[in-house]
Amino acid sequence: MTAVNSIIHSISSFVDKLNAVHRMLPWVLAFVLLLPLPQILAAVFNDYYIYLANKICIFILLSVGLNIVKGFCGQVTVGHVGLYAIGAVSSALVSIHFGWSFWLAFPIGILLSGIAGLIVGLPSVRLEGAYLALATLGLGESVRIMIAVTPLFGSSTGLLSIPEPTIGSFVFDNYTKYYYMVMTFAMIGIYLSFSILRSATGRAFMAVREDTVAAAVHGINVAKYKLLAFVISALYAGAAGGLFAHMPPGYIHHNNFTIIEMVTLLLMVVLGGIGHIWGGILGAIIVTIIYDQTLEFYFIQPLLFGMTMILIVIFMPRGIGGVIDRYFMTKKFMKIREENSDGTS
Amino acid sequence: MALLDVTGLSKNFGGLLALSNLDVSIEAGSIHGLIGPNGSGKSTFFNLVTGVYQPNPGSRIIFDGHDITSSPSHEIGSLGIARTFQLLRLFSEMTVLQNLMVGYHTHVSYGFLTTLLNNSLVSKADAETADEMMDLLEFIGLADFAGMPASELSGGQRRLLALGRAMAMRPKLLMLDEPAAGLSPVNLDNLLSIVMALKEKFGLTVLIVEHILKVVMETCDTVTVLDYGEKIGEGTPEHVKDDHAVIEAYLGQEMDDEEIRAAFEA
């Protein structure tokens, strides 16, 4: 345990030092360090893990987005996977049928997801808790069923041969190349979530989560911030969807957007720690790996994940992020106490 | 000049008339007390003024020249009315400092787009706000707990934090809903002296709802007495103390002067 402590401590002090030089430096460094990951994975394990790294990046975008609306703004939404589907299908359709490039189709997918997010968010102005969960569940599932029954959206065969993104003559046609793209977007997404959540907007989200009446009395337009949280998280879901659709081999099916996926996504946020910025990222990495490694037991997977979620909520309500936060806080107060006792003795 | 001018304020919950045709006017710079037995409509009055409830038609609430009768809570807050709650309603998972930063929300200088595009400006503005809020925490005596979640404070500290969060709004009118509830006499004196000091420092107008008559009698310039949603007395504390309608509402009829005096001094 002390080894873990010292590692956490040295990492955090190193990041602080980098931050002091330039605010972007830790981000640039992390980006550079993550660049050779596919080569390392291929050398240590095999090529399959490069695909897994792609998947993790996409799920990081999804869970960071969900963390904004659920973790920070406290709105229980089960429709997130529907927004993900809207981003994926619209981006895919635009590039298949109009032949538009990824760089045009992708923003369109994000935009449509954002608009859908506004619609999913509207019930939140009046509903709370389980009622809101039911309303958003209905919206999310209806998106999936809509895709499943409409031939244009792929119905039972799914959408095939969605074109890969290109920059000039460079085609992102294998997992290693595609990794550079999803990783870049995941980094941008994480960076933006930090910017948002560490500003007055993030504090307003948390105030809405804690107490809507008190938030309103202190000058926060509750309805506006709830909708803003829904739209931001929908934009994240749309981006994740677009990246998922164009990932080689360019195939999406409505089975990618089921309620099981939603539960997995919720587990990421809950495990990582509701309301911790790093929580969603950590949760996405851990859960995606576990999900992938236990695929052969897919019959009992939902049962396992559901039970894990219940256990976490009972025994670790603030998830991994909460445990880490508590560790740092305890340490800070120990230090203050030591300083105080030094002063008096 | 009246800072808050309420005329004909009524509110019914179904068949129950919680407030009927109430006229109250609060002078700028004064400390105004609002007293009355349980269920007399004091908290309803607070909730109507701060937009938590909507009043019946015909009511009029004018604050500082603005008609706020049907304004939403957040607009009323940004006009300069701050309040505390009887049950505090702190943001308990957030730190003490963050609670105050939320109170400061309406004065934040940057918008959402700046948040996305210019991170350094945001951190600079937030650092300045945090400094200002630390001064306020110093003033109310919670500076040592700035990084602690609000849920871990003691009862007395929570009341102070609620006051600090309201003050972070830089209000013109501060409305305190039973600030003394559950406080020990020492803590109570501490809280009252902080309120008086804040009033002097920021030129506040204060409206206090209180059960403990000692608080009202000692601090208020004017007192309004409510019973069953109607105003039954108004004036200086001395005047109200001797008003027979007030004594009746509070203590019943069958008491002689000696007992009445003893009750008020308790």
Topology readout:
The complex is a heterodimer of chains A (345) and B (266).
Chain A lengths: L1 H20 L3 H10 L2 H8 L3 H25 L7 H18 L4 H20 L7 H21 L16 E2 L2 E2 L3 H23 L2 H11 L1 H6 L4 H25 L12 H14 L4 H17 L7 H15 L3 H26 L1
Antiparallel strand pairs in A: 1-2
Chain B lengths: L1 E12 L2 E12 L3 E5 L6 H8 L10 E4 L2 E2 L5 H7 L1 E3 L12 H8 L8 H6 L1 H22 L14 H13 L5 E5 L7 H18 L2 E5 L3 H7 L2 E6 L2 E6 L1 H5 L2 H8 L5 H9 L1
Parallel strand pairs in B: 3-8, 3-9, 6-7, 7-8
Antiparallel strand pairs in B: 1-2, 1-4, 4-5, 9-10
Helix pairs in contact in B: 3-6, 6-7
Descriptive account of the structure:
- The complex is a heterodimer of chains A (345) and B (266).
- Chain A has 345 residues and is an all-alpha fold.
- Chain A has one domain (35-344): ABC transporter involved in vitamin B12 uptake, BtuC (Orthogonal Bundle).
- In chain A, 75% of the residues lie in helices and 1% in strands.
- Chain A contains 15 helices and two strands.
- Chain A has a two-stranded antiparallel sheet with strand order 1-2.
- In chain A, strand 1 and strand 2 (170-171) form a beta hairpin.
- In chain A, helix 5 packs parallel to helix 7 (129-149).
- The two termini of chain A are 31 Å apart.
- The model of chain A has no long low-confidence stretch (mean pLDDT 88).
- Chain B is an alpha/beta fold.
- Chain B has two domains: 2-80 and 171-265, 3-Layer(aba) Sandwich (Rossmann fold), CATH 3.40.50.300; 94-170, no CATH class.
- Helix content of chain B is 42%, strand content 23%.
- Chain B has eleven helices and ten strands.
- In chain B, the strands form two sheets. A six-stranded mixed beta sheet of chain B has the order 6-7-8-3-9-10, with helices on both faces.
- In chain B, helix 3 packs parallel to helix 6 (155-167) and helix 6 (155-167) packs parallel to helix 7 (185-202).
- Chain B starts with a strand and ends with a helix.
- At the A-B interface, helix 8, helix 9, helix 10 and helix 15 of A face helix 2, helix 3, helix 4 and helix 5 of B.
